Amino acid sequence: MYTEDTGASVVHSGDYDLIDVDQDTIFANGVHFHTTMVEGTLQAKLITGERLIINNGTVRCSGTIRVTSISGCGTLEVKGNLICDSIELIGSLYSEGNIRCSGDLTVTGKLSNIHRINADSVHLNGVVQGNSIYGRTLLMQPLCSTMYSRFGMTNYQERSNVSNIHAQEVDAHKLTCQTLHADTAALRDGSAVQNVICSTTLGLDRTSNVLLLAGNCQRIHLRTA
Hints:
With 225 residues, the protein is mostly beta strands. Helices cover 2% and strands 72% of the residues.
């Protein structure tokens, strides 16, 4: 590792057991790690390894991220695809490519994705802005705390907006969606969906609505919180 004229440290290509990023750091191409801990700011064209842990840091990748797991608290920005087994992040995740997660994807804060999200289980606490989400289960609920408005963090309390959702089971709050395919779905807290294709059960509270409904499903009324 050495320091560029810009003041950023550079990690050269190679295999590393542990990389501790506690300042502005750049990964050269060819870096592979078992664990990277990010407490400062990490920039890279490609990120490849096992465990990426963000500890109140920021990760910016202009290409693809391919790791086993992503966890921690902070900001993750990726312009290419994000491929992993699991994500458990508190903070913000911004993706301009596809997100492919073979296991669970959990974000508390804000998730923004331009293309497609694929995961076994998707659990979103906060706000999601996305194009398409595919998963076995999808749970979306807002963050309910006066702390966010008090400190001007209103972006964590916006409505979620997703164009297309395909899942076996969906439970969504404050969602705006064009098309939702599900076996069972529950829509709450002012959710509004244009087209729903549901095969088993569709639940709506009195604040939510569906414009067009297709499929042989039972429609039930949910109690408003």
